[in-house]
Amino acid sequence: MTAEQNPLNILGTKVNPGETKEVNFDVANLHTASPVNVPVIISRSKKEGPTVLFTAGIHGDEVNGVEIVRQLIAKGINKPKIGTIICMPVINIFGFINLKREFPDGRDLNRVFPGSTGGSLASRVANKLVKEVVPHADLIIDFHTGGSGRFNAPQLRYAKSQKNLNVLAEVFGAPFVLYSKNLTKSFRTTCTKLGKDMLLFEGGKSFHIDDVVTNYGVNGSKRVLKHLGMLKTVFKASKPKKQCVFIEDSKWQRAKYSGMFKASIAVGTKIEREDIIGNITDPYGKFNYFVRAQNSGYVINVNELPIVYQGDALFHISTKVKP
Questions:
Q1: How many domains in the chain?
Q2: Cα distances (Å, whole numbers) of residue 300 to 21, 252, 259
Q3: 253 by DSSP, 3-state: which?
Q4: How far is CA 99 from the centre of its chain?
Q5: Does pTM top 0.70 for this prediction?
Q6: pLDDT tens-place string over residues 5-37
C-alpha cells in the first residue's frame, strides 16, 4: 500500500493530502491599484508520489501553452492517482493581459532567472517562482510557442547532456526532440542548476491556438503522468503515432530577398536539398523567387509572416539527427 502524503505548505497555504486548492501567486497590483490574481491550482492524492509542475505563459503572447494547461485542469487530468500536480497556466499575467511577450518593464521573464527580491517586476516574479514553487517539484513541464509569426512543430527541448530525459521524452511522444543548450538566466537553466528535471515543450506560434499542437501537449502530459503512475484510470494515454526524431543539430535558412513570402511545405515535413519550399514575390508581379532547401532534413519551424526582409529566418531545418 502506498503511504499517505504529508501536508504541503506552498505560497502561504497548507494543502493536505486528497485536497485540491487554488492559491494566489501575487506579486504586484496593476497601475490602477487593482489586485492581480495569478491562480495556482494544486491537486493532491492521499497517496505518496512524485510532484509534477505544469507551467505556461512565461511569455504573455504564447497562449497555446496556456490552453494546454487549461485543458489539463478542465478535464481533471491534474487530479493525480498518486502524488501532487501543480498547475500554473499563466505566469506572466501582466503580459497575458496585454497580449505582450514581455513584462510592463520591458523585460523578458525568461532572461532574468533566478531573479531577486529587490529587482525589477519580472525579476521579483522569477524569484518568487524559484523560491516558493519550484522546490516542491520533482519534474517540470513548461509550455511555449514560437514567436514573431514563426510556427514551431511540436517538440521538446533540453540539453544533449541531460540523457536522463531521453526516456521521458520518448514517453511524451512529441514528433521531435531538439537538443539545445541551456540559455543564460532562463527558467530552464535555473531549474537544471537546482537539480530539477524539465521538459520544455515548443509548439505553434504566438497569438494563436492550434488544435494539433494542443493535442500533442495534452496527450504527452497524460503519457508522462501514466509513466509516473499518476494518471487516473479513467483517462487513456494513447501511444505516440510516430517515433520521436532526436535532432542533434539544425540551422536557420534565411531570406535572400525582401518581399511577400509564402511557404509551400508544412512544418514537420522531411525535405531534400534543392526542394522548392517557398517563394518570395514583389507586390507588382515582376519578381518571383523560388526558395530552395539548402540542405536535407526535417522542417521544425516555418515563418508564417506574409512579409519578410532580406536576412529574416524562413525555415529551421535539422542538419543532424540521432541514428
A1: 2
A2: 38, 10, 23
A3: strand
A4: 17
A5: yes
A6: 899 999 999 999 999 999 999 888 888 888 888
